């Protein structure tokens, strides 16, 4: 549980209200936050924040500014910052001028909010679970420069997720000429699909590769393992994600040197579509895949039977065991 204490407010040279605040619980008193309450942005103010030099921090302008999320699903609002240095990122909700987060700390009792941060890419993502109409509006990703730099994202909450079974199937091909099934492409309904259908079997110590395909390019994809978001910066290491975007989005998860703990349910969760899942089994030895497992079991059983016959013949050799059997 965290809170903020408002110290003072004033107007800056541009007429915008500036507040000084510090932490109450969980944050040292020495950390002061200079949060600027900017007006709802127009296209002119958005363009103003995009000018930058080679050294100063700036936002990636290719990150979507308009995000749609289905009611009851999870929304992901992202900004990507280059040349950030030791500066601090804050998320602001403009509807009530509420400070949602500073860094990775959230300043709200609403447990639906969570900050996802990937040090390798400079991404700062605000995750909002179980969104409803009240969550609609403009959100600002702010960097504590002088003057403050902001990146604005408009969240729109749309109706209930449509039933994909009512839409026709479509097919697409990639470089390997393998066809993959995709639902609702013609109807322009977002749909996610994991290329590896059914259960997957991988041998211990090998590399796990999972590909998730989404029939749109304006959504973000997140990977989960047994309900927990996959952390690329974990001490385990060896986890990478490669994203390809064209008219579709393909996100490929690579996990090197798999262990038994890597077994379980893997879910690809888009920000505006139903999730797709598969189950991975990491097993010892070279026998993997449902067919290979059966073959290994068959030969193991055959070897066991032959061993019993050999032992039986060895015990009965003095009694005149048939040579054709022994």
TrEMBL record:
An individual GO BP term: synapse organization
PROSITE patterns: IG_LIKE (PS50835)
GO cellular component: neuron projection membrane
Ranges that cross the membrane: 291-311
Keyword Glycosyltransferase found: no
UniProtKB keywords: Membrane, Transmembrane, Transmembrane helix
Top-level taxon of origin: Eukaryota
Keyword Protease: no
Family annotation (InterPro entries): Ig-like_dom, Ig-like_dom_sf, Ig-like_fold, Ig_I-set, Ig_sub, Ig_sub2, Ig_V-set, Zig-8
Record domain Ig-like: where: 57-144, 190-280
Name under which the protein is recorded: Zwei Ig domain protein zig-8 isoform X5
């Amino acid at each position: 549980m965290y809170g903020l204490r408002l110290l003072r407010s004033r107007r800056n040279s541009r007429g915008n209200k500036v507040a000084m605040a510090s932490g109450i619980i969980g944050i040292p008193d020495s950390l002061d936050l200079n949060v600027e309450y900017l007006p709802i942005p127009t296209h002119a103010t958005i363009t103003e924040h995009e000018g930058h030099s080679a050294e100063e921090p700036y936002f990636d302008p290719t990150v979507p500014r308009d995000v749609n999320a289905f009611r009851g699903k999870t929304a992901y609002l992202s900004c990507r910052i280059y040349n950030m240095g030791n500066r601090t990122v804050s998320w602001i909700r403009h509807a009530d001028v509420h400070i949602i987060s500073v860094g990775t700390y959230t300043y709200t009792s609403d447990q639906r909010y969570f900050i996802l941060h990937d040090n390798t890419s400079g991404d700062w993502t605000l995750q909002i679970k179980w969104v409803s109409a009240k969550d609609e509006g403009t959100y600002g990703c702010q960097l504590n420069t002088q003057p403050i730099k902001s990146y604005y994202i408009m969240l729109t909450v749309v109706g209930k997720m449509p039933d994909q079974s009512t839409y026709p199937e479509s097919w697409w091909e990639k470089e390997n000429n393998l066809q993959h099934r995709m639902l609702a492409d013609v109807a322009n309904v977002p749909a996610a699909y994991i290329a590896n259908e059914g259960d997957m079997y991988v041998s211990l110590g090998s590399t796990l590769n999972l590909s998730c395909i989404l029939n749109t390019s304006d959504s973000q994809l997140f990977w989960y393992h047994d309900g927990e978001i996959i952390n690329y910066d974990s001490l385990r290491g060896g986890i990478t994600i490669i994203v390809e975007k064209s008219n579709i989005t393909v996100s490929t998860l690579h996990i090197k040197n798999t262990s038994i703990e890597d077994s379980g349910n893997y879910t690809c969760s888009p920000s505006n579509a139903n999730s797709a899942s598969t189950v991975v089994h990491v097993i010892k030895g070279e026998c993997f895949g449902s067919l290979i497992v059966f073959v290994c079991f068959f030969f193991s059983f055959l070897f066991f039977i032959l061993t019993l016959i050999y032992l039986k013949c060895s015990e009965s050799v003095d009694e005149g065991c048939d040579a054709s059997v022994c």
